[in-house]
């Protein structure tokens, strides 16, 4: 709730400054926060508002972020074909605008979707792309996010040795990065694999 107050203050400041792109970026972040709180309709409303601004201004970088946000929303709420549609658009726009981190997280979310829907080949393809991009932008945090899905994938196909090896490396990295959100999830996954 505190975060939402800060987002609202940011939106008011962006509106006062007449900075539409900043307004849209804050809407995307607020939408993600609302989604984490389980307030899906409000989250969708914020992201759709950002989509309207980004489309009006023709800003591919913000459009890539908007489509990624919509993809993640549909990954968790369905339908999966809408998630894939927004994911493909997010990847296209991320590439055209040079947003490698956005492309990385879009592949991460698509890997989750394909894992949830039982498409192991597509999940593996998206994991590999997410890993490649995380390495390309030299982001250990993106590597940790991607590794979480890679552990789930390896466990899902019965490759226990890989799941354990990736899990142990990633737990150490998550600890060194002080990841309070990802570390507990990694510990649970690795506990299940052991």
Overview of this structure, please?
With 194 residues, this protein is mostly helical. It is 85% helix and 0% strand. It contains 10 helices and no strands. The chain has helices spanning 2-16, 20-36, 40-57, 60-77, 80-96, 100-116, 120-136, 140-156, 160-176, 182-193. Helix 5 (80-96) packs antiparallel against helix 6 (100-116), helix 7 runs antiparallel to helix 8 and helix 8 runs antiparallel to helix 9 (160-176). It is globular.
Radius of gyration: 17 Å
- DSSP helical segment count: 10
- pLDDT under 50 segments (min length 5)? none
Helix-and-strand structural type = mainly alpha
Percent of residues in beta strands:
under 5%
Helix percentage range? over 70%
- Average pLDDT, all residues: 93
From the spread of the alpha carbons, the general shape counts as: globular
- Biggest sheet record: none
Distance between the termini: 37 Å
Q: What is the number of beta strands? A: 0
Which series of helices and strands comes N to C? HHHHHHHHHH
């Amino acid at each position: 709730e505190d975060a939402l107050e800060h987002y609202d203050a940011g939106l008011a400041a962006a509106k006062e400054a007449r900075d539409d792109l900043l307004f849209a970026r804050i809407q995307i972040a607020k939408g993600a926060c609302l989604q984490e709180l389980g307030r899906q309709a409000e989250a969708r409303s914020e992201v759709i508002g950002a989509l309207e601004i980004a489309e009006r201004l023709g800003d591919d970088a913000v459009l890539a972020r908007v489509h990624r946000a919509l993809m993640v929303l549909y990954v968790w709420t369905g339908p999966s074909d809408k998630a894939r549609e927004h994911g493909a658009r997010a990847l296209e726009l991320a590439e055209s605008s040079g947003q490698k981190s956005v492309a990385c997280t879009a592949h991460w979310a698509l890997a989750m979707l394909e894992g949830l829907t039982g498409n192991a080949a597509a999940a593996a393809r998206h994991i590999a792309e997410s890993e490649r991009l995380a390495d390309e932008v030299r982001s250990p945090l993106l590597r940790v996010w991607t590794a979480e899905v890679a552990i789930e994938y390896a466990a899902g196909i019965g490759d226990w040795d890989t799941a354990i090896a990736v899990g142990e490396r990633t737990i150490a990295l998550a600890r060194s990065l002080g990841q309070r959100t990802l570390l507990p999830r990694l510990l649970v996954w690795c506990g299940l694999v052991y």
